[in-house]
Amino acid sequence: MNILEAITERRSIREFQNKPISRKIIENILEMTVKAPSGKNRQPWRFVILQDNNKNKLVTIMEQNVKYRKLQNLEIGSCELSINAINQAPIVILVFNPYSKFENDYNHYRLLTDTQSIGAAIHTMILTSENYGLGTLWICDVLSAEREIRTWLNRKDELVAALAIGYPNQSPYPRLRNSWQEITEWL
């Protein structure tokens, strides 16, 4: 698949086949991911690969968080949909920023730079997954249980997102996008 096809054909996948992904494929995806552009070459990403019982533990943590939030009459957004996707996907990759909580002079501009770099890494991971016939779902609902997830993993760095990866069990329609002409000012 060429890069333009991958960008055009990519969809967020929320239903996955019950089919494992080889460790070699995940390693190849990570090898490409670390080649993503990185502001000031900080490479502000760390990855935790979850599968099997560890992935199931993430599901349990998120389910408990949703239950608690419902009891408190708090918004749960799309958490239940994300939990279902995590549960079905054979691999979930948690993405952390190792710098935001530890650098003494960490400021708004570093946060913006690191966040953009991490986004580029996640997007590289998504496009590389497409090359292997895999579907992905970029998940930020894990942030609602960030403290619990970090405690479980004994991590001090900041949880930024998760990516569910697996063989798709659906073919979603293309979502409506604004045309570039609508959102671009040409000077």
User: Which CATH top level class fits?
Assistant: Alpha Beta
Treating each run of at least 4 consecutive H or I residues as one helix, how many helices?
Answer: 7
What pattern of helices and strands is seen along the backbone? HHEHHEHEHEH
Distance between the termini: 35 Å
Biggest sheet, strands in spatial order?
A: 1-2-4-3
Using only C-alpha atoms, the radius of gyration works out to: 17 Å
In terms of DSSP E residues, the strand content is 5-15%
Largest sheet: 4 strands, antiparallel
Low-pLDDT segments, ≥5 res: none
- The CATH superfamily appears as NADH Oxidase
Which structural class do you get from the secondary structure elements? Answer: alpha+beta
Quickly count the domains. 1
Residues in helix, %: 40-55%
CATH architecture descriptor name: 3-Layer(aba) Sandwich
Basic shape: globular
- Mean pLDDT, as a whole number? 96
User: CATH fold name, please?
Assistant: NADH Oxidase
| Total strand segments | 4
